[in-house]
Amino acid sequence: MQKKHNAYPIKKFLKLLFKLHFCCFCLSACHDTPSKKLDELPSEVTPAYYHWQTILALSETEKQHLGSLHSSKLYIKFFDIDINTASTEPFPLARLQLDSNSFIPDTIIPTVFITNRSLLNLEPAQVEQLAQRLFKLIGDLAKPLGPVSMPEVQIDCDWSQQTRNNYFLLLKTLREQHLPADQFLSATIRLHQLKYPDQTGIPPVDRGMLMFYNMGEVTQWQEQNSILNLEIAAQYIRPASPYPIPLDLALPLFRWGVLFRGGKMIKLINELGSEQLRDTTRFRAIDNSHFQVTRSTYLDGYYLYKGDQFRLEESKLSDLQEAVEMLSRYFPRKSFTLAYYHLDMPIVKRFSHTALSDLVEQFETRE
C-alpha cells in the first residue's frame, strides 16, 4: 500500500504531462466537439480512407483522389503492438514514418493495431502501463504531422475471451486517464462481435468501426472470396438488433492471391490479379479465380513450385454495391463515417472517385 501511495503523485504528474503533450497536436479537434450528442449532428455519410503502410508518402494522384472524393479524413496506422520475443512483453513495431514531401490531410485518426498475444498474461498494472506508453507514443509520432485535427484515436484488436478483460481495461484506461474529454476513442468490431455482443462483450469506447471484410475461410481452397463473402455476412446482420454503441463502417477495396501448396494455404500475396498470371508457359487457369503453377518460377519476389495453386480474391464494385444495400437496412439514418480500406496507388487506379462517391450516395439516399 505504501508503494502505491508514493507512486500516485508521479502517476498524476505523468497523466497531466501526457495530456498536455498530446493536446498540442489536437487543438483543431477541440473545435470539432466530437462529444456532441449524435442526435444533434446532421444525417450524412463522411467518406474516409485507411492508410496501412509504415511510410506515409501520399502522392499527388492520391491527394487528387481524396479531393475528388471530398474526403479529408484518414485513419493512419501509427504502429503495431506485438510481443517482443526477447522479453515476451508488448512492444511497438512498424512505427509510422513520414515522408517530408507527403501530403497531410486535414483530419487524421491515429490507429494502433494490437495482437491478441500481446494482451495475454498481463497483470492489471501492466495493462495500465501499456496504455500510458501507447498514448505517449501516439503523441510522439504525431509531432511531425503538424497542427492537424485529431478528433479520435482508434484501437484495432480482434479480442478473444482470453484477452477481453485486459483489452477492455486498456481501452478504459485510455478513455478515462489519457484522452482529452473532447476526443473520441473508437475500436474495431468484427462480424462475430457484432452478432454476439453478450458473449464477446462491448468495448468501453465512444464508437465502433465495423470491419466489413475478411469474413470467409481464407485457408479453405473451396472458399470463393474470403474478403467479401456476402452469404456469410448476411448471417451476421440483424437490423432488428442494433449494436449498443454507434458504428462507423469500413469496406474493402483490396485484393490478394491466396497461395496453396500441397493443399494447404501458405501465403497471401497482396494486389495479385489475373493479369499477372497470363503467362501460359508458367500458369494454367483452372477458372476465372483459380490458377495452377505449371513451371517453377518467381513471381513478385516469391519462388513458386510447380503444382502450387492460387485463388484470386478481390472486392468487386458490384459486391460493394450489394454490401451497401445489405447494410443500409442495418445502419439507421444517422451520421457515420464510411472508410475504405485502404489508400494505395493500385487501388486508386482500380476504383474511381465517382464509383466510391456513388456508394456514399447510395447510403445517403437509403429509405
Write the layout of secondary structure elements.
Blueprint: H1 2-23, H2 27-30, E1 45-51, E2 55-56, H3 60-68, E3 73-84, E4 89-93, E5 97-98, E6 107-114, H4 124-142, E7 152-156, H5 164-178, E8 184-189, H6 191-195, H7 197-200, E9 207-211, H8 230-234, E10 247-252, E11 255-261, E12 264-270, E13 283-285, E14 290-293, E15 297-299, E16 302-304, E17 309-314, H9 317-328, E18 336-341, H10 345-350, H11 353-364
Parallel strand pairs: 1-3, 1-18, 2-5, 3-6, 6-7, 7-8, 8-9, 9-10, 10-18
Antiparallel strand pairs: 3-4, 11-12, 11-17, 13-14, 14-17, 15-16
Question: Could you give a short description of this structure?
Answer:
With 367 residues, this protein is α/β, with parallel strands linked by helices. The protein has helices at 2-23, 27-30, 60-68, 124-142, 164-178, 191-195, 197-200, 230-234, 317-328, 345-350, 353-364, and strands spanning 45-51, 55-56, 73-84, 89-93, 97-98, 107-114, 152-156, 184-189, 207-211, 247-252, 255-261, 264-270, 283-285, 290-293, 297-299, 302-304, 309-314, 336-341.
If you had to describe this structure to a student in words, what would you say it looks like?
The protein is α/β, with parallel strands linked by helices and 367 residues long. The protein has 2 domains: 41-254 and 315-364, Glycosidases (TIM Barrel); 255-314, no CATH class. The chain is built from 11 helices and 18 strands. The chain has helices at 2-23, 27-30, 60-68, 124-142, 164-178, 191-195, 197-200, 230-234, 317-328, 345-350, 353-364, and strands spanning 45-51, 55-56, 73-84, 89-93, 97-98, 107-114, 152-156, 184-189, 207-211, 247-252, 255-261, 264-270, 283-285, 290-293, 297-299, 302-304, 309-314, 336-341.
